[in-house]
Amino acid sequence: MDLTLALAGLGVGVVVGLTGMGGGALMTPILVLFFGIPPIAAVSSDLAASAVMKPFGGFVHARRGTVNWRMVAWLCAGSVPSAFLGVLLLRLLGNDAAMQHAIKVALGIALLLAAGGLLLKAWAGRRRASGGPTATVVVRPIPTMLLGAVGGLIVGLTSVGSGSLIIVILLAMYPKLRANDLVGTDLVQAIPLVISAALGHALFGDLQLDIAGAVLIGSIPGVLIGARISSRAPVGLVRTALVVVLLASSLKLLDVATTTVGVVTGAAIVVAVAVSLINQARRRATPPESTQPTESTQPTESTPRTESAQLGDNAQPTSPEAADGATPAQPEGRETEPASSHSRGR
Known about the structure:
Layout: H1 3-19, H2 23-33, H3 39-64, H4 69-93, H5 97-124, H6 141-158, H7 164-173, H8 179-203, H9 209-232, H10 235-253, H11 258-285, H12 307-313, H13 320-324, H14 332-345
């Protein structure tokens, strides 16, 4: 077993569990560029590893309730059959290099735009907080199914896009979907998608089990770690991870040099950490809002009541005799009235 291949699978697994994307966009280039694996074998091996890896992360999100199951159903209705179609087209077209390159360039541009869109949404404060109430998301069946069909076709051809492509369009179609729910839904819908594409490659004999097994040894614990962090993490952390992975994936798909990708990604992480520290410092510097009761606040048991307030609650003040249980004295006018009438009769 290649230990470095397992470590690469561990890193990619954490990214997939945390963000719901990056498996094909990161793992396939790693297999081709760093390990010298032929592209068609890298595509099939990555799909087989993802078919086993993603259910672990999806199970964690399902337990946490960060999955929109109706959306998953409509996505899979389009993606599963089109994934088989993509594998068939790949065999018929003979793995045309120009077509593969065109698809990857278009996907890289889409990921780059998605990263910019997430930054703009964060700056505008339009994203909901993770701990806030969940917004009602109305699923649109036909557009969602068409999205799944397009994603399945591209995944069958390139193994790229089961998470990255679909998560980009989901951001535009459902802006009210929380970042945590977005990751969970995208991760779960990718399970049947990559399984169908992996089965298609296995039927044509492209699958290499030794490569897929080495990747799985590292990726399974990695995706479990990433999924647990994502399902419990604040929206800001998940959004930052999404932006970093989108940026790195887009640059790699656009054939940017690996050193440049590493420098840009590192710089993005440093900027994200600096912005987070600045925001925390501002929150600490901002004084908390006063919780003093207003003048209209009703007095409570712990609030001392004045004598005038007590007299306002009762029509007549209570005498000391009434407090001891004796009959309260009558007003003077009622005591003298019978006496005066009796004297008149005498």
